[in-house]
Design brief:
The protein is α+β, with helices and mostly antiparallel strands. It is built from 11 helices and 22 strands. Helices cover 24% and strands 26% of the residues. The protein is globular and about 65 Å long. This is Peptidase S41.
Length: 472
């Protein structure tokens, strides 16, 4: 149960709260309008006044705001916001978690997974100047073109005659040049790609961006693995968006029926999503924890009346796991970290982080809409999450806070759910009691030199790209 009537939504770069007037605890909507006083209109002056007003009243780190910034020096409201919160960013507290976005596009994504693109997630290697498919989503143009995990993009163009190699793009403009070559996230944008499949087959494909809905538990996402006679539940979750609730319920109903008590939960690249989904996920793991604290959410002292605690609720599909291996990467953030942090107090030495250290985002944002007439939403860091032990300072990732860690490589040439894929194989080793090499502490971003998820600049990201790093 909750201690206050607030529904929260958390993402890699987004968290919202909904007041009781907008639906309260059970509201299916992850967003709500919380509009402070502003000047009229939707233009630059109104946006800058709006940004400053919200920051002054709600920002989680009021002592880390540059109060000397002059709004008139900025011709873009996002640039003005960046300047205001610069001290918090320099202190590693707000790593571009506060930003402006579209109300309409964000609502469509959180409520249904709506996105526009090719339907794949990209990873790049700056040392060798290469780009690979890390994941292909269901019912997308990429999957229809048989573009799967492990495929390399060699060249990009609008036709066969004007393709530019990824090598030359990265040599001249870095990863952003590849982003630019792939074009905007608009339906109908077409690119001709020269690709090499994981099996070495070189081919050319013409692919167009379309509207599609991301599937949070994809085609390979829930299965039971027979590991030496032991039934292990494997779950791959790509996003904490509302459609995940029903899919999680179905997966855990199967796990419960099969008597599964050991789990591998694959959250690599998962940038977060709804905290309502995160709480439901916690409930799925809390069959023996009813009424105990899952997490506490705290605002700045002047807004402490909004603080709340969520307690495990036992549901028909809930199981009582005895051991969990969480697969993570540097792209695992926010709600992905919150579910792990929330389970640490209850599993003791029977929980592990597998793969890489997580991103490090123990804070969340609230949604503030400029007005009902303007498609402008401010996502501002306003709250921090803690587990039942009061732990919530994992700004450098969770590796130093989870009892066991096992380092493993993301083997993009094997699909998710393949027991021979290195991260999953290492997770199964942990569950079986075999030893491993621990993940080094410190920021995850320092551990993957030259390798990362390909992402547009902050101002260019769609709501789906904020929460699904590497999505195109």
């Amino acid at each position: 149960m909750r201690t206050s009537k607030i529904a929260l939504t958390m993402a890699c770069a987004a968290m919202t709260f909904t007041t009781a007037a907008c639906g309260g605890d059970d509201s299916p909507s992850p967003t709500a309008t919380v509009a402070p006083p502003t000047t009229s209109g939707c233009g630059l002056d109104a946006q800058r006044t709006f940004v400053r007003s919200v920051v002054n009243e709600w920002y989680l780190f009021p002592n880390l705001v540059d109060t000397g910034v002059n709004a008139s020096n900025f011709n873009d409201a996002q640039d003005y916001l960046d300047a205001l919160v610069r001290p918090a960013r320099e202190d590693n507290r707000d790593r571009f978690f506060s930003y402006l976005t579209s109300i309409e596009a964000e609502n469509a994504f959180f409520n249904g997974g709506s996105s526009a693109g090719f339907g794949f997630r990209l990873i790049y290697d700056t040392v060798n100047r290469r780009v690979f498919i890390a994941e292909t989503f269901d019912n997308t143009p990429a999957l229809a073109a048989n573009i799967e995990r492990g495929t390399e993009i060699i060249a990009i163009g609008t036709s066969s005659t004007n393709q530019v190699t990824v090598n030359s793009l990265m040599a001249s403009g870095g990863p952003q040049a590849v982003v630019d070559a792939l074009g905007p996230s608009d339906p109908g944008v077409t690119r001709v790609l020269d690709i090499v499949d994981a099996d070495g087959n070189d081919r050319e494909v013409s692919i167009s961006k379309t509207e599609y809905d991301l599937d949070p538990v994809p085609r390979y996402g829930a299965q039971i693995i027979n590991d030496g006679g032991k039934q292990v539940g494997y779950l791959r979750l790509t996003n904490f968006i509302n459609p995940a609730i029903d899919e999680l319920a179905d997966a855990f109903a199967d796990f419960r029926a099969a008597g599964v008590t050991e789990l591998v939960i694959d959250l690599r690249y998962n940038g977060g999503g709804g905290i309502n989904v995160n709480e439901f996920f916690g409930d799925m793991l809390g069959r023996d924890l009813g009424g105990q604290v899952f997490e506490t959410v705290a605002f700045r002292p002047s807004k402490s009346e909004r603080n709340e605690t969520y307690r495990f609720q036992v549901r028909p599909q809930s199981i009582a796991p005895t051991k969990i291996a969480f697969i993570t990467s540097s792209g695992s953030a926010s709600a992905s970290e919150a579910i792990i942090n929330g389970m640490v107090p209850y599993l003791g030495n029977n929980i592990a982080l597998i793969g890489e250290n997580t991103f490090g985002k123990p804070v969340g944002q609230s949604a503030f809409d400029l007005s009902s007439d303007c498609d402008t939403r401010l996502r501002l860091v306003t709250l921090q999450l803690e587990n039942a032990n009061g732990q919530g300072d994992y700004y450098n990732g969770l590796a130093d806070f989870v009892p066991n860690t096992c380092r493993a490589r993301d083997d993009i040439f094997r699909n998710f759910g393949d027991p021979q894929e290195e991260m999953l194989a290492t997770a199964l080793d942990f569950l079986a009691g075999r030893t491993c090499t621990p993940i080094a502490g410190g920021p995850a971003t320092t551990q993957r030199i030259g390798v990362d998820l390909l992402q547009p600049e902050l101002q260019e990201r769609t709501p789906a790209q904020h929460d699904t790093p590497g999505l195109f």
